[in-house]
Amino acid sequence: MKSHKPSKLIALGLALTMGLSIPAALAASSLVPASTKVTVDGKAAAVEGYNIDNGNNYYKLRDFASALDVGLTWDKATDTAAIDTGSHYKPDATQLITGNWAPATRARIQAVIDENANQGKYVVFDFDNTSVIFDIQEALLIYQIENLQFKIDPADMEAVLETGIPDLNKSMGTSLDGKNITPATLVADITSDYEWIYANYEGFEGDKDLNYIHASNQYQDFAAKLRFCGEFLDRFGLPVLDEALQADALNYYDQVLQDD
């Protein structure tokens, strides 16, 4: 998220101060466009202002929100204007937020929206590797590994990992010490690592926190080989590892929801 400089927030505070004396504005007998120039970080800002006969300048809050690139919403029910300095300015629902997109990507998508907005049409976006980085299965597997979100009993891990693999002895290459790597050897190593993790991690049956586990050789071996195994099988059109482990993940979160 884009950070906003203190000078911008000070400027926004001044803008609000300029607009607080509403009774005086309503009672004014003369109102003319303000001649005062406004700049943001040295660059001219397009803000609409008016000078009231009491000498004060009044500006539109939305113009300043746009110039400072801060979020601004209005709640009609409570008659409240809310400023969010942690978000970007968005003029209306049909405009993509500037800071959330690569400029060229935003321009092309915005052009489609501008041409079709408010006509009862809808747009469909591809999700995997488009709206999000990585395939959603890959992203979930990474999350499971990094946070050890598994409900698999160590005694069942070998069977889970072998699910759907047609040839457990198919060569996947050689290790640095010249040994043949197969799904079977990977499954054996991953299972052994998982047994150690299960016995030591406080989220399972142990008393060690996640930082301790992450620093262990067993975890690093487990994480590397599990991801390698998943990538290898996926390249051969066999995303069985992802599916087997994520069936476990769905079971895990289903149980969490039931417990809550």
What does this structure look like?
The chain is mainly alpha-helical. It is 50% helix and 9% strand. The chain has eleven helices and seven strands. It has helices spanning 6-18, 22-27, 61-68, 103-116, 127-131, 136-147, 154-162, 183-200, 210-214, 217-235, 240-259; strands at 31-33, 39-40, 43-44, 49-52, 57-59, 71-75, 80-84. Strands 1-4-5 form a three-stranded antiparallel sheet. A hairpin with a 4-residue loop joins strand 4 (49-52) and strand 5. The longest helix is centred in the C-terminal third of the chain and has 20 residues, at 240-259. The chain is elongated and about 85 Å long.
- How would you write the strand order of the largest sheet? 1-4-5
Number of helices: 11
- Overall outline: elongated
* Cα separation of the termini: 32 Å
Low-confidence stretches: 1-26, 236-240
Rounded radius of gyration (Å): 29 Å
Q: What is the typical, i.e. mean, pLDDT? A: 78
Measured by DSSP, the beta-strand proportion falls in 5-15%
Total beta strands: 7
Helix content: 40-55%
> Which H/E pattern describes the elements?
HHEEEEEHEEHHHHHHHH
- Please identify the structural class as seen in this structure: mainly alpha
Give a short account of the largest sheet.
Answer: 3 strands, antiparallel
